[in-house]
Known about the structure:
Layout: E1 2-3, E2 7-12, E3 15-20, H1 24-27, E4 32-34, H2 36-44, H3 51-61, H4 67-83, E5 87-88
Helix pairs in contact: 3-4
Amino acid sequence: MKIKSGFIVQKIIDDYIVVPTGDNIVDFAVAVSLNESGAYLWELLQEETEEANLVESMLKEFEGVDEATAKADVSEFLTLLRENGFLEE
């Protein structure tokens, strides 16, 4: 899975906002804001990857995050991306 083309993330002060590009501007009706971990996962999803790889990367990147929390957070984030049509699977 990976992020569909036509979307980028822009950092605005302390927030990360998903911004449509090209033809996606017309169909983009919802503003999506990401926290730091969401922006990190978004970046990883620029390339084809698997959910297990995302969890492993979260554990390495964010100190103090346990495996159960990382799995739950990744799962929730992927659900958000699927619901908003951002993922190519």
